[in-house]
Amino acid sequence: MVGTGLRSLTGAPYFAYYPTADDVDLVFEIILEADEANYLMAGGTAGGGNDQENNACGIAMSHAYSLITGFTMTDANAVEHDLLMFRNPWGETGYSGTWSKDDVNWTDELVAQVPFGLDPRTEAEADGIFVTPLSNIIGDNGCIEDVGVAHYRDGEGYTDDWIDAVDMDEENHVYGF
Questions:
Q1: Which domains does the chain have, with CATH numbers?
Q2: Mean per-residue pLDDT for 88-94?
């Protein structure tokens, strides 16, 4: 689970989300708010422990990815696309789904809307960065199984002067809706 690594490295509680079609928009809002607050975010793939095999989207199974940001692009037909930008810590990606580096839908106008001035058409090979539609984190779509946020929430027993939850057990907790 991605949360174990982030919690071990930072001491911050980690909240994992496994979105369904009914709550994916709420999860996107959580990602946008967490990004605005500069919280650490990540995503992980399913796969039973073998990160040497790729899933249907061309990325490593049983692997953790940094979730850099969520954002919305608007194409020339005024259609909005909710997207997530991930980075493979291995510095490479074989992502082959919609909005991959080779997707013919990319235009210079759309690339100009990608945060941080990154060009997903070239950053994939250079830095392991890839962009995927929000829909690729829903249920069994096969790309990203879960996303999560590591952060402190004072109102729920977490403080910024203690590195972990007050009286939190050592179990990983999945937060639903």
A1: 2-154 (3.90.70.10)
A2: 85
